[in-house]
Amino acid sequence: MKKLFISLITVFTLAKIVNAQEISGTVVDERNLPIFAANVYFKSNPHNGAISDLNGYFSIPYTYDNDTLIITFIGYQNKRIPAVELEEDSKNIITLNADPVLLDEVVIAGTTPISEQFSTEKLSSLDIYMNPISQADPLKAIINMPASTNSDESANPSLRGSSSDRSRVIYNGVPIYRPVRASSLNNIGFFSIFNPEMIDVQTVYPSNPPLITGNASGGIIDISTIKKISKNTYQLSAGIGNIGFSMGQKLQGKSTFIQIYGNWQNSYLLKKINTKSLPDMKSYDTKDVGINFRYTLNDKMYFNSYNYFMSENYNGTSAMLAYQGNLKSNGLRYFSVNNFVIFFKKGMFKINHGYNYEKKEVLFGNNILNSKDYSHYASIDYKTDITKK
Fold first, then answer.
1. 224 has which bridge partners?
2. With contact defined as beta carbons under 8 Å apart, do 43 and 63 qualify?
3. Measured distance CA(116)–CA(206) in Å, rounded
4. Which residue of 55, 73, 185, 245 is most buried, as measured by CB atoms within 10 A?
5. In terms of C-beta density within 10 A (0-12 exposed, 13-18 middle, 19 or more buried), how is residue 32 classed?
6. Which three-class secondary structure state does DSSP give residue 188?
7. Mind giving me the DSSP string for 191-254?
8. pTM (two decimals)
9. Which GO terms describe its biological process (predicted)?
10. Is residue 108 part of a domain?
């Protein structure tokens, strides 16, 4: 009989311990409304807590009687309850009191000079090369400017918090759409299609762009090619994944010249040397050539033509939503920018023409995306200083 009595006491004690393994309750505010996502944890084990659900309900493993249950939530005073005061069921109604924070009044007054409202940034080719984050890329050189708000690795410019399609790149007076290469499936291009060797001045208008280059609520990047070369130049570069060259040749004085550059990027050596790196990239091959020709007829008249051709192929692995598979893409692009300029005594007359051809094919899973784009652009500008009599 004595053994039976001891056994019954043991069973009831174990049952009480088992029931006490979980403590549950509801967290409410002073109006008895449930508080969602309140933090609930024991002081001895803060990393094994719980959060209240939409109804304020929570359930948390019990520790020991000398512990303390802590409940916290932003905007409310922290609550501490000794573990021995907790009920073993969901009758624990825990009320949090509001903890308002009063802020002193802050008055900000400022006067901005009118000139700063129309502020611009100008970069030369040397500025682009010397920029530590530009990677000798004209469009990437503006990333560290205060007005730049790029949030990805794209060379597409983003100004004043706007998306990249609201900023416009102007090359010798002609807008260049999609001024990037090495595009991925989401159309993010990691490099621009411009060579800094051919750039005279790159002007960034983060706000209030010139009227003649409208259709850009985010801003304007206005690029002008060089107007003269002082000597003939020849350059050759080579690396693990690329070979490039550039040359500048005077034809008649300093103001009539031709510039040519070319690049070939291929992944063969890179993948051979780094066999375990870049597992998602199987191969890539990119070729691009640019030619800038400037012919000066006299001191008041010149013709400039810039032509660019690019071919790129990529083979790798990509993922979208719940699917991961092979991604193949290949593309061709050609564009031409031509300008004829005449200077008069009281102004300047300019004719601009641009042509763009772009073809791209992307194969991803059972999706085949084909796109072709043909576009022409033409404009006539006349500039004069109306303040002069």
1. 201
2. no
3. 11
4. 73
5. exposed
6. coil
7. EES--GGGEEEEEEESSS--GGG-S-SSEEEEEEE-S--SS-EEEEEE-SSEEEEEEEEEEETT
8. 0.64
9. siderophore transmembrane transport
10. no
Q: What angle do CA 284, 286, 291 make, to 5 degrees?
A: 175
Sign for the CA dihedral angle at 140, 207, 210, 255 comes to negative
For 330, the domain range is 228-389
Helix, strand, coil percentages in the chain from 3-state DSSP, rounded to 5? 15, 50, 35
The number of distinct structural domains making up the chain is: 3
271: three-class secondary structure by DSSP: helix
Q: Are residues 346 and 247 in the same domain?
A: yes
Assess contact for 289 and 309: CB atoms under 8 A. yes
pLDDT in tens, the chain (389 residues): 445 444 444 444 444 444 447 889 999 999 999 999 999 999 998 888 899 999 999 999 988 889 999 999 999 999 999 998 888 776 789 999 998 877 677 666 554 444 444 556 777 788 887 877 777 788 888 777 777 767 666 677 777 766 666 778 889 989 988 888 765 555 566 778 888 888 888 888 876 666 666 666 677 888 899 999 989 999 999 988 889 999 999 998 888 999 999 999 898 888 888 877 778 888 889 999 999 999 999 989 999 999 999 999 989 888 776 678 888 989 999 999 999 999 988 889 999 999 999 998 989 888 888 989 999 999 998 888 777 65
Say which residue the tokens 């409410």 belong to.
28
Residue 223 vs residues 119, 144, 205, 364: alpha-carbon distances, Å: 17, 18, 11, 36
